[in-house]
Amino acid sequence: MTRPGRTHRLPAAAATPAPATLPPVGLPGLDPAFSRLVEVAESGAAAPATRTWHLLDNAARLAELGVTPVGTVLCVHGNPTWSYLWREFVTKATDAAAAGRPAWRVIAIDQLEMGFSERRGTVRPLARRVTDLGDLTDTLGLAGPVVTFGHDWGGVVSLGWAVDHPELLGAVMLLNTAVHQPEDSPIPAPLRLALAGPVLAAATVTTPAFLETTLALAHPRLSAAVKRAYRAPYRAAARRGGIGAFVADIPVDFAHESAAELDRIAGSLRDLLVPALMLWGPRDPIFSDRYLDDLVGRLPHADVHRFEAAGHLVAEDVDYAAAALTWLGECAPVVEPAATEAEAASETWPAPVVEPAATEAEADWVAGPHHPLWHYLDELRDSDETALVDMSPPGGRAPRVVSWRMLARQVRRLAAGLDLIGVRRGDRVSLLVPPGADLTAVLYACLRIGAVVVVADAGLGLRGLTRAVRGAHPDHVIGATPGLVAARALGWPGQKISVARLPKPVHRALDVSFTLAELLSLGMAEGLPASPAPGDRAAVLFTSGSTGPAKGVVYTHAQLAAVAHALHAQYGVGLGTGLVAGFAPFALLGPALGARSVTPDMDVTSPKTLTATAVAAAVAAIDATVVFLSPAALANVVATEAALTPADHRALAGVRSFLSAGAPVAEPLLAGAARLMPRASAHTPYGMTEGLLMTDITLEGIRDAAPTSLADLAGPGGVCVGCPAATTRIRISALDADGAATGELSDAPGVTGEIVVSAPHTLDHYSRLWLTDRAARRGAVAGERWHRSGDVGHFDSAGRLWIEGRLPHVIATATGVLTPVGPEQRIEGVAEIARAAVVGVGPAGTQQPIAVVETLPSGRRVALATPGLAAAVREAAGLQLAAVLVVPRLPTDIRHNSKIDRSRLSRWAETVLSGGRMSRP
Amino acid sequence: MTAPAGAGPTRVGPAARTATLHPHGEPPLLTVLVTGASGFLGRAVAARIVAAGHEVYTFQRRASGVPGVIDRLGSVEDPAAVARAIDGIDAVVHLAAKVSLAGEAADFEAVNVGGTRTLLAAAADAGACRFVYVSSPSVAHAGASIVGQDALPADPDRARGDYARTKARAELIALAADSPRLRVVAVRPHLVWGPGDTQLVARIVDRARSGRLPLLGHGAALIDSTYVDNAASAIAAALEHADGVHGRAYVVTNGEPRPVAELLAGICAAAGVPAPAWRVPAALARGAGSLIEAAWQVRPGADEPPMTRFLAEQLSTAHWFDQRRTRADLDWVPEVTLDEGFRRLAASYR
After folding, report:
1. Is the pLDDT of residue B162 over 70?
2. What's the CA gap between B118 and A729, in Å, rounded?
3. Can you give the pLDDT at residue B23?
4. CB A417 within 8 A of CB A446
5. How far apart are CA A596 and CA A591, in angstroms?
6. Which regions of chain A are under pLDDT 50?
7. Does the pLDDT at position B302 exceed 60?
């Protein structure tokens, strides 16, 4: 209970009393009409006492509007903010009600001793604050459903209220917060510093340091006016006692008086079955991702969205208010469910749940029993046939040949070993292992026990990789030494398991718990846990991020098995096929297909080092008939053709199909590769991390699709990627005048729009990106699973799909939308042009198209094109280009060096063409 | 003053000014007064309105030289002359203005603000039903780049220079005079050019010929311009549609922004003179512009200053506009493309 005496750690000023007041008028974004003061009788007090609260409340406004709330959202700020934090949410909720959408009453409180609520100078431990909030809601007489919404330590208080009021509780929403300090990790450094004896008083009360530090955490920076508004209730030391007391109330150890209450709340969360939403800013030095992990562990059904660029003040960094209202509209229970459900149905799309009906070709597979990924490992466990060949195993010895018997045993023993050291079904295991026999064995062992593998592309770079691994919050990391070094240096979470045996000091230094060899001997008895179910999560794959921030793509076992099946159906890869695995995502599926696979000798972090000789050697090693290569590797393979011996040529002549996936491959390059494998059909499929095989086209197909007439050239153009793969359906969602993909799904030819895909082998969902998931499923056929690819294209009359660019790169002019790829290809036909990008400048709907080009030879500085070149480019493009700019180099993604960053170019061009500095893009 | 007798299209008399339709449902034929018709754009506008079948009178100090019109000479600063000129008129298209980049502030005020006020009052007294005020995008321009914006309200307090400031005030006065009886539209053509232009084109060509035309900055700022025939057809369209769009302001351009260097080069090439080859940093030009402007106040010369801050800004920042509302409301599209305009300009120099 309140203990006026316990202020010894804080200066006397902290105990200065002051009555509650209304905030000053004119604070940006805060409507004074929402402010009110409420007197509340304090429960459990020795003598009758009242406390006056300041709060924001839109109830009066809703009454003026004549609308009945569907429920109440109770917003609780943290330290050292105040209800001002929630201004946007109060306003947006009220605006939504005024616009006829479901009306939410929003109450945002100033905690006692904080904001503009009453100051008594008393210390209010966590338990008291939870009771205080209950006293307030009793006084207000709130009826259900109530949705709590908390930030920072206000998150804990709001959850305390939530667990104490199950009869009223409808849902919980959280911004960055924490309910539990893991025993094995120290509390965040900034707080440790603030808690250090004398520092506490100085940092929190005597000076505004703690307040200023918090306000500096916004990304982008807060405006001076907004900072002033946050400071308004904390202008002098006498007003900041609550800030100091709040910090002092952080339970640093079990002996702390609030530790028990925190434990009670944290422990009770597992019983909360109401819908939950967490909106998180990972760039938070205090409530980092590990606290999110902890919360997700307690509320596993929660919807989570991590805003990659946001931090602690996520409410200032992103449009959290719109996100919360969207979620409330879909997920929260409301009063009068019958009426609002019908309304919700008209506004939102039902969540897709099933795949479209199977085509005839896949009927046998789909109708049959679930084919687990380890099906052939079980079936061929006694076979001495070759399963894997590693042409360059770690250590640089001779090729390593692994039989099915050996592989199956390794997988079983590793699986049993992992199980014994506590790797559980649903645990996330980050794999930092280069492709080869070790990765294959570890991967299938994890899948077998139901652990979720996290695979991030090395092409992300260390920074992207770190964000990806942290975002995926692995419970365990299995790594080769470089991966473990990075994990150690960058503080990646999780128990560390080393692929290699390490000298003792290194072992310790890298914080390694086990090695694979130890797991193999631990698992000697091959005691396996129950297999995971088809609907269980199997993998999180991180995209390269070449088209935006890295996103974790989650697949279930059934969906990964469907990827294998799609390869089988499209390319005939199956039991006994010899497969050269030069492209990791497909290569790893060799054992799932029953195929014999070989990893060629190459530096996996630099695929362009692969030589023709290495490919030929790999083909010869297992009599391969199918070759998978990455597009980046292809150029060097073709370039090193001269080194091939007659024997190499003979081996390559045995290849029946050859496939290059990952990025579009130009016809000359594919033709060059096809010459090396004269009896193979050359394929280049179209796909994405979210759906690895969507369409397929052969070299002949590419040649057939080449424009043959001027009429072809005048159309939208693009890159032809062929027809949908065997188990895939593709539709187009047409673009509107502003370039938004708002059209119904359609397969009508000649219509440009967003490419929307559906297949048994597309992703299940994005990891912790609730809003992204929702956007990707928008407009799906009811009851079906569709995914919006973000690519733009059209079907031709022959049913072939053409890619015209990315959705954000669509140019919305006053006379219609334009897509970049077609005109770029036409401009690249001009003799002087090496590479071109067509982007829009100006506001959507009235954008002007412009071209940015690299010339031959390349220009040394950025300049306007000469009149002659500009005329030639305009003529070729067939567009009224407002400007033609010449640059030494177009900005491209790191990974493929082929995807031009058109969004960046567009921003750059807008500056230059407004009279800004002519910098490099 | 009497109307030409006999021949010509059916007149809509002052008694029935808007109601009478042409027998075939075409728009009514009007008696129109075009002010400033001896100017470059005014001539084109008067000719265009004549071609549409309306009866056209003009009002300015000099003969207009436009075939098919009747000149009523006088100054907008002379209320009596204005009253005489407006007798029997259904609609006014008001272009007369002091356009220069330099001069006494009081002169701009008298012509641009006073003249417009006088004309509006006279039009209302005479029972005219339509009034097209020809304005300039500079009335809403404070010096920053304009990138695909639609017309913003005129803002005399932020407009740069006496010309823009007085045009802004006059536009506000004109639109405030809009009523169900006198329907006022403001049209703001941006950078009008074409054969016979003694303002923009002639100055560019003269300076380029004598090697005095610099490029400001890198010359990549996107500038939209208006070929004279397009400006004229847009103003004529505003006259036709005034009953539906009155009270509003419309920016008019070709809708083909180009880097300022390309525009200048196109004009120079058409005139057969070398394109600007030397550059002046834009910031320097803006600074120099205000210095020269200040000096000019002290020692005014016969011509206008070689560079003003306003002009420097115009030529080194982007100016292009959202034309969707203009085109939809006025049911108008530019007929002459930029390239065709350059061809016609070149033909005029041969």
Report:
1. yes
2. 70
3. 45
4. no
5. 7
6. 1-8, 337-368
7. no
Distance CA A837, CA A865 (A): 14
Q: Spot the catalytic one: B57, B133, B163, B227.
A: B163
Structure tokens at A689: 């991390």
3-state SS, A230-271, equals: HHHHHCCHHHCHHHHHHHHCCCCCCCCCCHHHHHHHHHHHHH
Is B147 in Cβ contact with A841 (below 8 Å)?
yes
Identify the architecture of domain A813-912 in CATH. 2-Layer Sandwich (3.30)
Q: Which two tokens stand for residue B104?
A: 């006494």
With 90 as the cut, is the pLDDT of residue B350 above it? no
Residues of B with Cβ-Cβ distance to A887 under 8 angstroms: none
Q: What is the pLDDT of residue A289?
A: 81
Tell me which chain B residue has its CA closest to the CA of residue A850.
B258
Q: pLDDT tens, B306-346? A: 556 666 677 778 999 999 999 999 999 999 999 999 999 99
pLDDT in tens, A497-521: 999 988 888 888 888 999 999 999 9
CB A477 within 8 A of CB A288: no
- B250 catalytic, yes or no? no
Are A74 and A59 in contact, with CB atoms under 8 Å apart? Answer: no
Nearest to A843 among B259, B322, B323 (CB): B322
pTM, to two decimals:
0.85
Pairing outcome for strands A400-403 and A386-390:
antiparallel
Q: What is the pLDDT of residues B251-274, one digit of tens each?
A: 999 999 999 889 989 999 999 998
* DSSP symbol at B224: -
Q: Tell me which CATH code domain A688-808 carries.
A: 2.30.38.10
Which CATH number is A12-339 given?
3.40.50.1820
The encoded tokens of residue A130 equal 């939870």
| Whether the predicted interface score ipTM is above 0.90 | no
Output the DSSP codes for B62-121: S----TT-EEEE--TT-HHHHHHHTTT-SEEEE------SSS-HHHHIIIIIIHHHHHHH
Judged by CB atoms closer than 8 Å, whether chains meet at A814 and B255 is answered as yes
Are A12-339 and A404-533 equal in CATH topology? yes
Domain boundaries, chain A: 12-339, 404-533, 688-808, 813-912
**Omega within 30 of 0 (cis) for the link into B28:** no
CA angle A547, A550, A554 (to 5 degrees): 115
Nearest to A914 among B221, B256, B324 (CB): B221
Kindly list the residues from chain A whose CB atom is less than 8 angstroms away from the CB atom of residue B316.
Answer: 915
Fold designation for A404-533 = Rossmann fold (3.40.50)
Can you give A280-345 as a three-state secondary structure string?
Answer: ECCECCCCCHHHHHHHHHHCCCCEEEECCCCECCHHHHCCHHHHHHHHHHHHCCCCCHHHHHHHHH
- Give the model's pLDDT for residue A205: 81
Select from A880, A915, A918 the Cβ nearest to the Cβ of B316: A915
Question: Could you tell me the pLDDT band of residue B82, with boundaries at 50, 70 and 90?
Answer: very high
Contact A108, A150 (CB under 8 A): no
Give yes or no for A871 touching B (CB within 8 A): no
Could you tell me the domains of chain B?
28-274+303-349 (3.40.50.720)
- The pLDDT confidence band at residue B10, using thresholds 50, 70 and 90, is very low
pLDDT at B14 over 50: no
Residues of B with CB under 8 A from a CB of A: 145, 147-149, 217-222, 255-259, 261-262, 265, 269, 282, 316-318, 320, 322-324, 327
pLDDT value, residue B304: 52
Q: What is the DSSP string of A165-196?
A: -TTTEEEEEEES--S---TTSPPPHHHHHHHS
